[in-house]
Amino acid sequence: MPAIATTNPATGETVKTFAAATDAQVDAAITLAAARFADYRRTDFAQRARWMHATADLLEAEADAVAALMTLEMGKTLASAKAEALKCVKGFRFYADHAEELLADEPADPAAVNASKAFARWQPIGIVLAVMPWNFPLWQAVRFAAPALMAGNVGLLKHASNVPQTALYLADVLSRGGFPEGCFQTLLIGSGAVERILRDPRVAAATLTGSEPAGRSVAAIAGDEVKHTVLELGGSDPFIVMPSADLAGAVRTAVTARVQNNGQSCIAAKRFIVHTDVYDQFVSEFTALMSALRVGDPTDPNTDVGPLATEQGRDEVAEQVDVAVAAGATIRCGGKRIERPGWYYPPTVITDITRDMALFTEEVFGPVASVYRAADIDEAIEIANASPFGLGSNAWTRDQAEISRFADEIEAGQVFINGMTVSYPELPFGGIKRSGYGRELSGHGMREFCNLKTVWVA
C-alpha cells in the first residue's frame, strides 16, 4: 500500500494517493504556526468560541459526507461514522461553551501568602504536535483540536497515513469556521518525520494516541527535549459480570462493547471475566449474539461489522487467534478469516485461555472476545488487573459493596459500572500502566497543554 493513501478496506482498492510533505513544507508550516501563535494567544475566549461554533455548524451540516469519507478510508459502518461526526460537533460546542470557566483563574488566600492578591492562571504554551490514529479518524483529532484551540494553542496534525482525506478535512473545516491561517495545520507526513518536528524548538509539546512502540518513541524524543507529552496507547479492557447483574443487559452490551468500530477501539471491552455462577449462560447467549452479527459492506445499512482498516491489522488478528487455538484455546464462534475481497474478520469468541498463552496479555485489535471464568469477586479483580494495560474497564453488578470494590480496586483510568466505556467531552479520558499517561477531554485534558502560572502581588 502506498505510504499516504486512501485505500478502501472493503475492497483493498487504493482510491487516491498523496505526496508526503517535503522538509521545506514542514518548516514553512512550523514557521506559520509560530507566527500565528504570537497573536492568536491574545484572542479572547468569546472570539475563539464564535469560530468554534461556526466550525461545529459546518460539520453538522456536512456530517453525511464526512461519514462516507471515514467509511471509505477505514471501513467503519456508515451509522457509526455518522455518530462519530456528530460526536465531534458536540465536542466543539462543549469547549466553545465551557473553555473560559475551565481555565478560570484559581485564587489563593492572599493573607496566607503575604500578598494583596495571589492566583494561578492557565495560559497556552504554543505549538502542539498531535500524532493521531486511524480508528476514530475525526474524533481522535477533534478531542485534541477543540481544547487546544480554545486554550489559545495552535496545532500541527500528523494523522495516520491511511486517513489523509479525513485529516485534510479537519484543517479545512476549522479554516472555514473562521480560525486564522496557521492555527491548525494538517501535515501529510510519514512517521519518520515526527522526530524532526518534535525536536524543533518552536514546538512546545506533543500528544499521541496509538501503539505502544509509537508512544515509547515519541516519549523518548520529547523527554530528551524536555517537552511535555500526553500518551493514550493500547488497552485490553476487562468486562466483569457478577451473579447479581442484569445478565440480558450485560450480554447485549458486551456484544456492542466488543465489536464497536469493527472491534478496533482502545476502549472496546476485550476480556470478558464472568463469575462461575453465570458463566455458562453468559457464554451461550453471548456466542449466539456474536454469531448472528452481519459482516459485510460497511456502506450497507444492514451491516453490523465491516472490514478491518488494514490488511496488516486483519492478518495480525488472525495470527493471534490461530496461535491461541494451537495452544489449546477453544473457538466458540468465528475464528477463521473471511475469504472475500477486503480485510474482513468475523466476530469471534474464545474460551479456555490460560495464562501462559500470549493472548492472555496481548491486545487484540479486532472483533475477538476472550472469555474467562472467575470463582469470585477476588479472582475477577485479579484477572482484570493481570494485564500490562490500564485504560478502561466495565463491571456489571447490582451489589453496592461490589460496585465500591470495582471502583476502588480495578487498575484503570476509567471504570464504568453497568455500562460500556465511552468517551465524553465532560469526563477525563486516559489510562495508566502501559496504556499511557496524561488525560484528554474535560478540563483536565484542556489544561494538559497550558502553563499554570502563579501570580503574586505584594
TrEMBL record:
InterPro entries named in the record: Ald_DH/histidinol_DH, Ald_DH_C, Ald_DH_CS_CYS, Ald_DH_N, Aldehyde_DH_dom, ALDH_GabD1-like, GABD/Sad-like
PROSITE patterns reported in the protein's UniProt record: ALDEHYDE_DEHYDR_CYS
Entries under Pfam families matching the protein: Aldedh (PF00171)
Domain Aldehyde dehydrogenase: start-end pairs: 4-455
Key words of the record: NADP, Oxidoreductase
Family affiliation: Belongs to the aldehyde dehydrogenase family.
Range of residues in the leader sequence: none
Official protein name in the record: NADP-dependent succinic semialdehyde dehydrogenase
Organism in which the protein naturally occurs: [Mycobacterium] zoologicum
Gene3D superfamilies: Aldehyde Dehydrogenase, Chain A, domain 1, Aldehyde Dehydrogenase, Chain A, domain 2
TM region(s), chain numbering: none
NCBIfam families: PRK09406.1
